[in-house]
Specification:
Blueprint lengths: L3 E3 L5 E2 L35 E3 L1
Antiparallel strand pairs: 1-2, 1-3
């Protein structure tokens, strides 16, 4: 699974770890995150992320 980086704050979304505090359990691919998911550090939307 590919990691994605926030172009605003450089947070890295790693699908292996997920974002369980925000409803994305480990193993959740970036593409499967809900449309309203946002960066846990800066609040940017999914459109601010790029493949790493």
């Amino acid at each position: 699974m590919e990691r994605w980086v926030c172009t605003i704050c450089q947070y890295v979304y790693d699908p292996a770890a997920g974002d369980p505090e925000n409803g994305a359990p480990a193993g959740t691919p970036f593409e499967s995150l809900p449309a309203d998911w946002c960066c846990p550090l800066c609040g940017a939307g999914k459109d601010a992320f790029e493949k790493q």
